[in-house]
Amino acid sequence: MGHDDDLKEALIYLQRHRWAGGKQPVENPDGSKTVTCQMKDLSGRVVWDSNDTWSGTDRILGDVIVRHWGQIDWHLHYSGGLKRTAITTDGKRYVFLDEDKTFPVIEIFKFMQKAFLAGGQPIRGPPEFRAGNLLYRNFLQGDINEPKGYDVVFYLEEQPNTSTDLKKASPPIELHRIEYSGGRPI
Length: 186
Known about the structure:
Blueprint: H1 3-16, E1 26-27, E2 33-40, E3 46-55, E4 59-68, E5 71-82, E6 86-89, E7 92-96, E8 102-104, H2 105-117, E9 128-131, E10 134-141, E11 148-155, H3 163-168, E12 173-183
Antiparallel strand pairs: 1-2, 2-3, 3-4, 4-5, 5-12, 6-7, 7-8, 9-10, 10-11, 11-12
C-alpha cells in the first residue's frame, strides 16, 4: 500500500474512534474541547494519532491534526454551525423549523455522528446519507491531499421515497453547515 492509501485507512479509523464514534471530549482550560485517538501497529507502537479540537456549540471552529510516527502529516480546519435560531427550553436546545415547529439540536449532532460513520469516508461523511426526516450531504472537492468543501444537514418535511416524490416535497430546511479545508502540510 502507498502512503495515500495508508493515510486514507488511518483517517477512516481515527474518525470512527473520535467524536463520531462516541468518544467523549476533554474540556480544555480555555473552554475548547478535544478528542484524541491513536492507531497502533501489532507491537503496540503508535503509528497514527490525532487530536480534534473545537470551540463552540451552535457556532463551531475546529481543527483536526493527524500525526504519522509523531510528525504532523495531515490537518483539517472546519467552521460553521447551526443555520437556524436556537432556543433553550427545560435545559434542552431546539432549532426553529418555522414559527410553530422546533427540532432538538442534540438529534442533529447524533445524526451527524451516524453520517460520519456511514460509508467509510476519510473526510467527514459520505456524499449523501438519509435517516428519517434528516438528510446529510458532503460536497467534497479535491482529495485527501488537499480537501476542501462543506457538509450540510437538512430537515425534510416529508420523507420522499422516489425522485418524483422529492420533486413534490417541501423544500429542505438547512439546519447545520460546516465548511472545511486542509490536507498535507507544505
